Write the structure tokens for this entry.
Amino acid sequence: MPVNPDPPVPMRALLAGARRKESALLDLIQKLVKAESPTDNKDAVDACVALVAKHAKALGGRVKLLCQRGFGNVLEARFGPKSKTGPAGRILLLGHLDTVWPLGTLKTMPCRLGEGRLWGPGTLDMKAGAAMALTAIEMLTETGMLKREIVLLLNSDEEVGSPVSRPITERLAMECAAVYVLEPAQGLAYKTARKGTGNWRIDVTGVAAHAGVDFEKGVSAIRELARVVESVSGWTDLKRGLTVNVGIVGGGSKTNVIPAEAWAEVDVRIARKADGPRIERRFAALKPGDRGCTLTVAGGINRPPMERTRGTVKLYRQARALAAELGFPLEEAATGGASDGNLTSALGISTLDGMGAVGEGAHARHESIVVEQLAPRTALLAGLLAGCDAAVAPDTLPKRTIRS
Ligand SMILES: [Zn+2]
């Protein structure tokens, strides 16, 4: 590997370029927001994906639509020269175009500019991130600074846990040296760690009986469930970043019937990869306290944590250095929420997250992005795509093994 002869990235010039493109970028975000794209409406998501595909083609992207049946299509667009050095030369830009908002949300939550923000469903999470990526690529192409292959992957099922796009994300990530995730920033910070998530459902079966006539013949599933809830809730260990939340419970039929059925749904978050198998074993080992009851336990860890690895820290430090040249301090943050970055990080590929818009209210009625942050964040993204060298140094390449 020869010593990198490239001149330093001209961050100030990139910022000026991003400011010139700000109004076009805002237009593009609004266009994407107005193409409402709830995960469960394939036609709607596909229409939004098609808009981005058209835009990517116009920028000279090599665009592939990976068609899906149950969900919207997945967009893969490649920019810049084809990598001759394999993964070492490529960066994956990762995001999604589906939102949690049902069709028609725009009627009561319109896409509008005001108070220095752009408001509307999916602005922050994460149509702005997708538009910023396209704009960063456009800036680099126009200035001849796009010297490496960029793979932009936008899926349509992230908001329900990426059931169909997960293998695609993992396959493309394996072809790249680093992954930049276009999810919203945490406050003003990039995200260097995310918790992993798991979900369980526990069903308890007892024995029904008349609460007045045959009380002693019954076995209460609700009472048993209460024990189970108390027990699994006790596994929370805040110091380890491990939380167990029994979020929904149900059971019983009438007040005068000993309940034969009860159930609970549980959300688990882990900060450490090693806690995944550990907590899975604990759920699997759950036994009823009352032998008259049976327990059925189903679930598991579905997204591993994105740990703050050396590779991730290296990517973050480069970002911080370029941000300093733009005149702002860039912090790093950890979050309890998961993204597709969890998947790529778990493969051992350096992943930096939260590189999309700055704003507030993801999944909430006040969802919005801060307009004045668009240009500096887009310039930073462009600078990293042009100049990030952690992604090309062979000694930082991760081991390429997929965990099943
Ligand atoms: Zn998102």
